[in-house]
Amino acid sequence: MPHLLLSDHKQISTPTIYDGVEFDFVAHHPLESKIAVKTDNKEFLLTLKNKDNNKLLKLDTSTRVSPVSLAQKALNSYANLCGANILFSNTQPKTKKLEPKKEYLKDIEYFVHSFSITKDIYIEVGFGSGRHLIYQALQNPDKLIIGLEIHTPSIEQMLKQVKLQNITNIIAVNYDARLFLEFLDSNSVQRIFVHFPVPWDKKPHRRVLSDEFINESLRVLKPNGTLELRTDSIKYFEYTQELIKHFANTPTKIIKNQDIDITSKYETRWKKQGKDIWDVIFTSTTKDAKIKNQYDFNFENNIISLENLTLPNKPMVKKDFFIHFEYRYITDKSNGLIKLTFGSFNKPVTKYILVQDGKLSYYQGLPLPTSANYKAHNLIKEVIFDIS
Any idea where the domains of the chain sit in the sequence? Predict the structure, then answer.
């Protein structure tokens, strides 16, 4: 993470522009200050805090920006603007080989703003080495194969094989599968594979399969589409049997020690050891209505005084979401920032609420339009405006 160690110095005057970087405002908390900057049409925050008798300046991790050269530029511009002595710096660009373009790796924003369905879709949750994912892509060139994986080295390994084999019908997404399905249309997916998910025997609430995940899977699946679990864990299998009871109207099939065309090296080893493997298949039978997730993340026109606002100091936990107000950063009585973490337990988001002339908005863009984020947003409004 790029950062500077600076000699002690006076606060800069804002708003101002220096070397192509806009410094909009500085907001203060007893532990640190946040400096709002904008360059190349991207806005983000810098953090300034005491370090012995000096000042440490770094990129705020919750508003990190890409490419990192933008952060390096903003850090160096601040140092020159304030006239401080630079005691340490790691903001010089490093010489490195250019990485190949990952045209088949998409972030979640792509599915929010740009994704359109032109083919039948298969989804694999937690594709690991990618052997099964690549096999499905090669066997079904007319399908779009979406692979979900949170382990970055696995994604890199799979994408290398995609390039070597000139595969063009795979999209990899580094995102939690339990939230991803919300971004897909109803009746748009043909098959969902969940092969050998982490058992989470000591933390079963972290398992991929749940009532909520199965319901979302059945919504996005076409009629006769399938959700297919494959596991070597007896505890996961027994847990899934209990889930089946909640879906009495959904046809399910259980197969023990079924041979499939492509297996991982671990599955081959388990079979040689005589270990049992179970397949549990849920089949969708209905055509679901299309959903319209038109979430409004505005704060209306309510006016607050940030300086006089007292926020809860403990997390507020609900059934399927939470909010945690962390810090207030003050510029004056009406302006500043509120830092908070909220949303799903599986994929919480840390955002800043910008308070400007007493009006509220999310800094650096709106939260992702998920149901958990929207529920959290409504509770945030209720808390802020009820106590203000």
Answer: 3-89, 105-283, 306-387
φ, ψ (nearest 5 deg) of residue 25: -165, 165
User: Do 209 and 229 meet the contact criterion of CB atoms below 8 Å apart?
Assistant: yes
In this structure, which amino acid lies at residue 239? Y
Cα(21)–Cα(23) distance, integer angstroms? 6
Who contacts 35 (Cβ-Cβ below 8 Å, separation ≥6)? 12, 23, 25, 26, 45, 46, 47, 48, 78
Output the pLDDT for position 103: 85
Selection from 363, 383, 216, 362 nearest residue 296 by Cα: 362
Look up residue 70 and give its two tokens. Answer: 């933008």
DSSP 61-89: GGG--SSHHHHHHHHHHHHHHHT--EEEE
Rounded alpha-carbon distances, angstroms, from residue 222 to 185, 253, 292: 10, 18, 18
Paired residues of 3 in beta bridges: 58
Residue 112 — φ and ψ, nearest 5°?
-75, -40
- Kind and range of the H or E run holding 3: strand 3-6
Rg (CA), the chain: 25
267, two tokens: 């599955």
Q: What does the alpha-carbon distance between residue 42 and residue 216 come to, in Å, rounded to a whole number? A: 34
**127-147, pLDDT tens digit by residue?**
998 999 999 999 999 999 999
**Cα(290)–Cα(277) distance, integer angstroms:** 36
pLDDT recorded at residue 251 = 97
Nearest to 89 by CA among 20, 2, 150, 160: 2
Q: Give residues with Cβ within 8 angstroms of 262, minimum separation 6.
A: 131, 132, 135
Number of Cα atoms under 13 Å in the Cβ half of residue 99: 6
Answer yes or no: is pLDDT of 356 > 70.
yes
Preceding amide of 67 cis, omega within 30: yes
Cis peptide upstream of residue 30 (ω within 30 degrees of 0): no
CATH superfamily of 105-283: Vaccinia Virus protein VP39 (3.40.50.150)
